[in-house]
Design goal:
Blueprint: H1 3-11, H2 18-25, E1 32-34, H3 35-46, H4 60-66, E2 70-72, H5 76-81, H6 93-105, E3 108-110, E4 125-127
Parallel strand pairs: 1-2, 3-4
Length: about 130
Amino acid sequence: MDTHSFLWALFSPERLSATAKKAIRDPENEVWVSVITFWEISLKYSLGKLEMKNTIPDDLPDVAEEMGLEIMQLLPKEAAGFHKLPKLAHKDPFDRLMIWQAIQRKMILVSKDRKFREYKKHGLQVYW
């Protein structure tokens, strides 16, 4: 899941598409949240660009595990090879790194962000 999908699953599940909700809740699916999501949330929280009720960024890894989500670490080869991701319209470095992780691991990324679709021809699978 990308960052907004994770936050919506946590705080506003009604904002998720029915398809995304079904995929996230399906016990047959392994659902992952990247450490990049925690980094993005922490940064935006510290800058005052993100408010959370009854929790702080420090709690989110435990909350993710309680939700049954797997936590995806950033591998050194993913970080080092990130320069290979084509520079298209999407500029957000957090999203671009999650896109790169999903492509490298051949995983489906749950995201509403339409700009992600630009990377389909580079191997990204997006689900919404």
